[in-house]
């Protein structure tokens, strides 16, 4: 496994903030694991999960440090889904091979020593680990010298699965969420309109009625001027207004379900191989189809 010159020792790695290859924050670096053979940092544990209660192993292969940031080549999802391994103990070959397989990596070299190494968190332990690695001491020599190591030396996995890799792909997870899209208001305003209606009215009119005086009627004759009058009456249309309730009006909502189509772009990995001559062709394509199974 190739390491950058910045990771020849564990000095300064603990406490950095880890970011994945897309720049998304993963968590803070807790512990550093050293290779039993070379004494170089090979793995770090990063706090993940709710409230940072879980530590996940992250490979340092291809990682780079930028001030207080550690940028690794793995994705945040891959780190969160990494195999669960106790972060305070030595990595045995099987556990380390599981991590290599999960990240699609291959271990180079033989199986290292798997004796457990003591680990202590703190600045003094970190300095001890860096000094041991810098002087070229082995794992046993560093511990026998009494140094309190923060970094734990890891072992390599067996060679049974060294020639395989994990192919991953993204899949859409579609759900629904409720959100406000608008408001409906009910208000009352006053408008005017012209109303016409018919109402019967009556009035009095004058007409002259003449009746002859019959013989025998006792009526005195009096010649002279005289006048009489009668009062006439008529009905008049009178308009008044009153307010009366006519109906109740309210707002109600009802849920209407409809189907919407959603689309997005997902990534997936393809496995290719080169033959001994470094050529690719129909054979490689056919091999890829057979090994991968049906494409989605």
What structural category do the secondary elements indicate?
alpha/beta
Major sheet summary line = 7 strands, mixed
Helicity, as a percent range: 10-25%
Model regions low in confidence, pLDDT < 50 over at least 5 residues: 1-5, 111-157, 281-296
Number of strands: 7
- Strand content range: 5-15%
Question: Can you tell me about this structure?
Answer:
- The chain has 296 residues and is α/β, with parallel strands linked by helices.
- Helix content is 15%, strand content 12%.
- Strands 1, 2, 3, 4, 5, 6 and 7 form a seven-stranded mixed beta sheet that branches.
- A hairpin with a 5-residue loop joins strand 3 and strand 4.
- The radius of gyration is 49 Å and the shape is rod-shaped.
- The two termini are 33 Å apart.
- 23% of the residues are buried.
Can you summarize this structure?
This protein has 296 residues and is of the alpha/beta class.
Keywords:
7 strands, single chain, 296 residues, 5 helices, seven-stranded mixed sheet
Task: Map the helices and strands.
Elements: E1 17-19, E2 25-35, E3 41-48, E4 54-59, E5 64-66, E6 69-71, H1 76-80, H2 93-102, H3 123-134, H4 139-144, E7 152-154, H5 282-292
Parallel strand pairs: 1-6, 2-7
Antiparallel strand pairs: 1-2, 2-3, 3-4, 5-6
